[in-house]
Amino acid sequence: MDLSTAMWTAAVLGAAAVYWFVWVMGSAEVKGKRAVNLTTGFIGRDKAQEKHNQVWSFFVRSKEDIAAASDEDKMPSIVETYYDLVTDIYEWGWGQSFHLSPSLPGRSHREATRIYEERVADAIAARPGQRIIDVGCGVGGPMRTIAAHSGADIVGITICDYQVSRAREHNRKAGLDRRCEVVRGNFLEMPFPEASFDGAYSVQAICHAPRLEDVYREVFRVLKPGALFVTDDWVTTALYRPDDPRHVEAIRGTERGGALATLRAQHELAATARQVGFEVLEERDLALPPAEPWWTRLKMSRLAYWRNHLLISVLAVLRIAPKGMVEVHEMLCEAAAHMSYAGETGIFTPLQMILCRKPSIKP
Ligand SMILES: C=C(CC[C@@H](C)[C@H]1CC[C@H]2C3=CC[C@H]4[C@H](C)[C@@H](O)CC[C@]4(C)[C@H]3CC[C@]12C)C(C)C
Ligand SMILES: C[S@@+](CC[C@H](N)C(=O)[O-])C[C@H]1O[C@@H](n2cnc3c(N)ncnc32)[C@H](O)[C@@H]1O
Predict the structure, then answer these.
(1) With 50 as the cut, is the pLDDT of residue 26 above it?
(2) HSE-up of 93 (CA within 13 Å, CB side)?
(3) What is the pLDDT of residues 253-289, one digit of tens each?
(4) Which residues have CB under 8 Å from 110's CB, separation 6+?
(5) d(Cα 326, Cα 324) in Å, to the nearest integer?
(6) Is 210 in the pocket of ligand 2 (CB under 6 A)?
(7) Of 98, 116, 312, which is best to mutate to test ligand 1, by the most ligand atoms within 8 angstroms of its C-beta?
(8) InterPro entries from the xrefs (predicted)?
(9) DSSP class of residue 293?
(10) What are the backbone angles phi and psi of residue 129, rounded to the nearest 5°?
């Protein structure tokens, strides 16, 4: 190879490398986070590894141990630690909506997510002048879509203080901070008076609750009589076989990777909602055909996960990313594999939806 060819080759490779890193780091506005700015939330950089080990060792135990009474009191703080660790990676590698949704033919993931969230708003007929609660709001992806689509005012609650700060920043940038409020709180004991909301929704969040009935009872309490509540959540389906080791491993891997004590069976959502006093108007697995698979996006090419892992490892070596970030990313890689298997075999769905109403007061 003569000198000029060598120089041209070096120039092209160099440009490709710069483009790749810029593309991978992405525009902060589009991804919400550049790779070089990844943090472990409000956990100090030097504590990230220890905190990851704390979360991992909590969920790697048997369900019986996790369900032990004292652990159920610990759950909210363990879940907050999980979200401190993963929120930036979620934003960087997935976006501002921390949930799964059906793919839509000919639509981008971002469009499919928006359409899914708009359907949540339509399910409870959210409209201007109403005050709606988002139970487990993350960094507010659904909240902003629903506020823009419906015109309603939204109050989001999340256990994770770091997510409160991220959500408030996104709301301000979106010009929605006057209609979208975010509070830090535990959805098991919400800081709101009785009958203070015109509607409620929860997108793939209540699965974190140790006892489903405790959250449903709280939502029932803060809703006005006659108000609607819609939730979609992670459950095992009727195809799940607890005597099949492959099924057990996939579900345990999904629970561990998502900081979930246990996944409930599909029928439990509606049954528990009725138990606390709701009328259940609709119950459906939104993942069933004609919906397209929700796991397509999750089954990013192995190259994508390898590329992300390489980048995080390099940033950790350069002390740009917290050292513990590498283990957190490994945990999520493993979770994605278990979730994809569980989705493809049909033993798990993240989209079990129930639409409920708090009965009106009888005259
Ligand atoms: C409902 C929950 C979270 C749902 C999803 C938002 C997340 C569940 C698993 C997450 C991810 C897995 C693999 C990551 C990948 C290794 C990384 O390079 C980029 C980010 C991931 C794709 C990440 C994104 C968010 C999830 C899909 C709760 C109940 C857990
Ligand atoms: C997977 S995220 C979903 C967030 C949001 N619904 C979305 O779709 O982007 C789950 C959310 O539930 C919140 N959460 C979990 N346990 C909670 C609790 N006990 N109280 C309040 N929020 C909780 C987490 O902080 C996180 O914001």
Answers:
(1) no
(2) 24
(3) 999 999 999 999 999 999 999 999 999 999 999 999 9
(4) 95
(5) 5
(6) no
(7) 98
(8) Methyltransf_11, MeTrfase_SMT, Sterol_MeTrfase_C
(9) P
(10) 90, -15
Q: Which single residue is written with the structure tokens 């256990």?
A: 159
pTM of this structure: 0.93
Give residue 318's pLDDT.
93
d(CA 117, CA 37): 28
CB 162 within 8 A of CB 84: yes
What pLDDT, on the 0 to 100 scale, is given for residue 32? 66
Residues 164 and 140 sit within 8 Å (Cβ to Cβ): no
| Distance from residue 137's CA to the centre of ligand 1 (Å) | 16
Which amino acids bring their CB within 6 angstroms of ligand 1? Answer: 89-90, 93-94, 98-100, 204, 207, 234, 258, 298, 305, 308, 329, 332-333, 335-336
**Rounded Cα distance, 225 and 222, in Å:** 9
In 3D, which of 251, 295, 281, 245 has the Cα closest to residue 59?
Answer: 251
- Contact of 181 with 156, CB cutoff 8 Å: yes
Record the tokens describing residue 45, joined without a space.
């950089």
Angle subtended by helix axes 268-275 and 212-222, to nearest 10: 50
> What three-state secondary structure class fits 31?
helix
Structure-block tokens of residue 95: 């976006």
| 3 state SS of 210 | coil
Task: Of 214, 154, 222, 167, give the one whose Cα is nearest residue 194.
Answer: 222
Strand ranges, E, within 237-277:
264-265
In this prediction, residue 2 carries a pLDDT of 84
Task: Give the residue among 210, 208, 155 at the shortest CA–CA distance from 184.
Answer: 155
258 lines ligand 2 (CB under 6 A): no
CA distances from 27 to 7, 24, 89, 92, 325 (A): 30, 9, 14, 10, 20
The number of beta carbons lying within 10 Å of the beta carbon of residue 203 is 28
What are the Cα distances from residue 4, in Å, to 60, 104, 218, 236, 251? 57, 48, 71, 61, 57
